[in-house]
User: Fold this.
Amino acid sequence: MAAQILIPRLCIIGVGLIGGSLARALREAGQVGEVIGCGRNEDNLRAAIRLGVVDRYYTDPADAVAGANVVVVAVPLGAMETVLRAIAPHLAPGCVVTDVGSAKGCVVADVERVYGYIPPSFVPGHPIAGTEKSGVDASFATLFQHRRVILTPLAETTAVAHHLIRRMWELTGAEVVDMGVRHHDAVLAATSHLPHALAYTLVDTLARLDDRAEIFRYAAGGFRDFTRIASSDPRMWHDICIANREQLLEMIALFSADLARLADAIRTDDRAAILTVFERAKTARDNLYLD
Ligand code: NAP
Assistant:
């Protein structure tokens, strides 16, 4: 008897970089039957069909989720509640809903606002993978290979739903880990949301200088490495900063205090203090496992 595929009908709402890459990876793994796409922009959705990412698409989320075994909500954080509200009455019995949002507390709060409780078949998730590009054209099947995916299952989440979403991500080549919602948001504020806020601010500061053309002309590799992520979608990162406001503000305060201390050391010619910070940072950076 042939083995059953994991997800006979998958619905991806928001067929962009993350949603598109997930659909591609699951297709390559041969573990998905039909893939239904959903979005507002028909050019992007037609491209998704042309690229073989989805089989058909709808612009109305209520139509898109009909009969789906798994629904992946892969829209920006600011659009999550609207999408969750639109699909709630139309989900098939037993359908498992997950999301890919970069902050988790806000998505859980959206779900609670929509349902008034946490549905047992809801599994919050976040792939720690991405590029600065957006849209289905930027998606690729190997995006999640050797990357981590964090799931933040809740007390209400059933083991069956949790296991299905874990298995789905493992099939993309990702390592799946579980975390608490608050812990996830604190860790990501430090490792992702603060760096994006810094990169955007640094580029914006320099871009407003009178001699910016001259400055950018001489930007070398270090500047490019540091600021690559400032090319990411501004609207998406706006949503993330607002969604994870509390944890991000804590990290910005910590970083601002350290930067002010460094400025003080430079001002007062405290060479030992400057060297201590740089040496400590180099040791930490050299010993990081960054793939
Ligand atoms: P993306 O490439 O821009 O894709 C998002 C998709 O959502 C778009 O194709 C868009 O399709 C749809 N969408 C946008 N605004 C919408 C709205 N207001 N209502 C309904 N649909 C909307 O973005 P992405 O990078 O895949 O990010 C999607 C999610 O993944 C976000 O929640 C983000 O936090 C999370 N994430 C991103 C990364 C990353 O590095 N990029 C990494 C991990 C997680 P239409 O225009 O057709 O509606």
Remarks:
- The mean pLDDT is 96.
